[in-house]
Amino acid sequence: MKPPVAIIGGSGISNIIKGQRLTVGTPYGPTPPLTVGELEGKKVIFIPRHGENHSVPPHKVNYRANIHGLKKLGVERIIATNAVGAIDQRLTPGDIVIPNDLVDFTRSRHNTFYEGPPVTHIDVSEPYCPTLRGVLTSANGSSGHESVEQVVMACTEGPRYETPAEIRMLRTVGCGIVGMTGAPEVFLARELELCYASICFISNMAAGLQNSLSAQEVEDRGRDTTRILNDIIAEAVREIPDRRTCPCAKALASAQLSKPERARGGGKIA
Ligand SMILES: [Zn+2]
Description:
The protein has six helices and ten strands; from the N terminus they run ββββαβββαβαβαβαα. It is of the alpha/beta class. Zinc ion (ZN) binds next to loops.
């Protein structure tokens, strides 16, 4: 059986598959209830990032449990969905973006699996898996959407939205979109040598670029976009190559100074 593909559902994204429900125990606590099913003839696992009823705010999501649980189930590839605000004014609500880089402005989150030895410095020169990004970008293109390329995501701590001055700062440092859940998720996936890419939908213009911002608006936009996103994700799942040729699977090989655990088949996870 081929390794399952995981889909992390964010704000406004409903379950894309039907199937068996289960919760996985991890050293960091249990995952939310996952759904294990099939999509395009492949085994797929859906995980609701914010819990079953969207009850967990972005800064309280147990990112380590979510990623560790997926690793435990044999997942090698993760497609994450994120609701984001647009800073880049070429983007408008309803657009879909596959970001290529990220700036992490979070402050209070458990952002690593490696709290002790072996000291581990993971390389994130290319934080998102190039293969998954390519597959998502071409699936987005074939759905008739024009992609804005080379978009950098800012991940803020939340749960409040940003101030207009913060948005001006984010634009100055090159960020085109802003959300609250991109980090540490992407980095935790790399630490466990999982492929990870994000598909973002623009739910609103960021603060200062529209009159005001409501959580309901973000939720509603997500619901409107769900069908389009689901189609793109289904095509991406179909097109993911069976074999991994990207560097993600060997991320730990160059991340640790001494590697006795690696020699026994896997870095020690704190
Ligand atoms: Zn990869």
